[in-house]
UniProtKB/TrEMBL annotation, chain A:
This is Histidine/lysine/arginine/ornithine transport system permease protein HisM. It comes from the Bacteria. The gene is hisM. It is a multi-pass membrane protein. Residues 26-221 form the ABC transmembrane type-1 domain.
TrEMBL record, chain B:
The keyword Transport applies. It comes from Vogesella alkaliphila. Residues 24-253 form the Solute-binding protein family 3/N-terminal domain. Its main location: periplasm. It comes from the Bacteria. InterPro entries: Lys_Arg_Orn-bd, SBP_3_CS, Solute-binding_3/MltF_N. This is ABC transporter substrate-binding protein. Keywords: Periplasm, Signal, Transport. Belongs to the bacterial solute-binding protein 3 family. The keyword Amino-acid biosynthesis does not apply.
Length: 240, 255
């Protein structure tokens, strides 16, 4: 117990938000999670629509993208983006690319966003496919254009029905951020490793990190439960 | 609590008095630090620490068993008795001494900066301000750089392992790498990848962060093993075995 108090006193700040010089620990983990989830979500909606297209030229490339990013470990994707791409002379010669890939944070964010976007695209595409035919036929009968059909009927319903699986993806993404230190990003697990190698109090060092991860998941689950209650109310069994 | 600790110490001491016969000595090693310990292409462990450990075992007429372990978990593993001693170029530090005990010094190698040939970098905060320096997480070089350079405006980036530091030095992400001079010379400067790089300035010394040198890490209760290893160490120094083994790897005196 004394050990934990000593660790919290000495490293509490590093665990939560800063190592004194830059963002670290929980704040870095959440920042990475937030950015990658937002970027992934924004890109995945149009990609999901493209994925269910009957035109092979449109759905094919999206299928390939999701296949590649779901078919390889995120860790390898991060290594390729962080170490592989920057080792290419052509990338370093281009000032803009050089500035982008030089920063470990940018590489990590790119890998995470592309990865979560691939999974989210498949989740959304699955939900779009499962939209009841009756709803679509009714919308067509009203004379809705394809765009209006997606905007007013298919997407609102598909995104709502995707909530439970989407919340899973967000939680898995949170856990995936623990590989960020591979690209030198000082995330929560990195701080725990620091503390472990400085104090050798492994149980306390990693235990604290585990508690922090679990608290975030707890908050996320609560948040998604609220969202589901609000937007999935029409699927709840009703008592009269 | 104190009474319990005292009791445990007494039990340990009495066990020590019986002097367990160390027929087998299990050394924990993290083979990622050539030339001290690394893996040959065949998967075999090679390096100065490996040779030294085997020589010590031969002296003690014990069987050497090498157990590989991740660096950041090597002290907990020692305490959990996954092996009996750490022979993995571990530097003696205050914090480590709170957890484990150490044999006599086996060598002392100061850390040194490595950068592109022809640069004017020196291991001092004023020439390094605004530069990016890579260090291995948990190394004494990291402790030194974070204590003396980072507060003065040097960007000190920690890496999960030393190979990644060199990789980012050659790719241009880093201006310099900071690590043990022997490790840098044999693990990088003498390899094809390190052709265009050289030491920048001399080694640094600081007992507070860098310690007094490397030694064999032992559980505090195994005082008998410590005595035996120290005796064997003195013997390999006396009969020239240490010099002969060191000459295999180093062109300079590492003791």
């Amino acid at each position: 117990m004394n050990e934990i108090i000593a660790i919290v006193q000495e490293y509490g700040q590093a665990y939560l938000w800063s190592d004194g010089y830059r963002l670290s620990g929980l704040a870095m983990t959440l920042w990475l999670l937030l950015l990658s989830i937002v970027i992934g979500f924004v890109m995945s909606v149009p990609l999901a629509v493209a994925r269910v297209s009957s035109n092979r030229l449109i759905s094919g490339p999206v299928w390939l993208y999701t296949y590649v990013f779901r078919g390889t470990p995120l860790y390898i994707q991060l290594l390729i983006i962080y170490s592989g791409i920057y080792s290419l002379e052509a990338v370093r010669a281009q000032p803009l690319l050089d500035a982008f890939f030089r920063e470990g944070f940018n590489c990590t964010l790119l890998a995470f966003a592309l990865n979560t976007c691939a999974y989210t695209t498949e989740v959304f595409a699955g939900m779009i496919r499962e939209t009841p035919h009756g709803e679509i036929e009714a919308a067509r009968a009203y004379g809705m254009s394809r765009f209006t059909l997606y905007r007013r009927i298919i997407l609102p319903s598909a995104l709502r029905r995707a909530l439970p699986s989407y919340s899973n993806e967000v939680i898995l993404m949170l856990h995936s951020t623990s590989i960020a230190f591979t690209a030198t990003v000082p995330d929560l697990l990195k701080v725990a490793r620091d503390v472990n190698s400085a104090t050798y109090a492994s149980f306390e060092a990693f235990g604290l990190a585990a508690v922090l991860y679990a608290s975030v998941v707890f908050a996320l689950v609560w948040l998604f439960r609220r969202c589901e209650r609000r937007w999935l109310a029409f699927l709840q069994p009703r008592a009269h | 609590m104190k009474k319990l600790a005292l009791g445990v110490m007494l039990v340990c001491a009495s066990m020590g008095a019986v002097a367990k016969d160390w027929k087998v000595i299990r050394f924990g090693v993290n083979p990622s630090y050539a030339p001290f310990e690394s893996k040959a292409a065949s998967g075999e462990l090679v390096g100065f620490d490996i040779d030294l450990g085997n020589a010590l075992c031969a002296r003690l007429k014990a069987k050497c068993v090498w157990v590989e372990n991740a660096w950041d978990g090597i002290i907990p593993a020692l305490k959990a008795k996954k092996f009996d001693a750490i022979l993995s170029s571990m530097a003696v530090t205050e914090k480590r001494l709170q957890q484990i005990s150490f044999s006599d010094k086996i060598y002392n190698v100061p850390p040194r900066l490595v950068a592109k040939k022809g640069n004017a970098l020196q291991p001092a905060p004023d020439t390094l301000r605004g530069k990016r320096i890579g260090v291995e997480q948990g190394s004494t070089a990291e402790a030194y750089a974070k204590a003396y350079w980072e507060p003065k405006g040097v960007t000190v980036t920690s890496y999960p392992n030393q190979d990644q530091v060199y990789q980012d030095l050659t790719s241009g992400r880093l201006d310099a790498a900071f690590q043990s001079s022997v490790q840098a010379e044999l693990g990088f400067l003498k390899t094809a990848a390190g052709r265009d790089y050289a030491f920048a300035g001399n080694g640094v010394a600081d007992v507070k962060t860098l310690g007094v040198g490397a030694a064999i890490g032992l559980r505090q209760e195994d005082a008998d093993l410590r005595q035996q290893l120290n005796r064997a160490l003195a013997e390999v120094h006396k009969d020239g075995t240490y010099k002969r083994l060191a000459a295999k790897y180093f062109s300079f005196d590492i003791y």
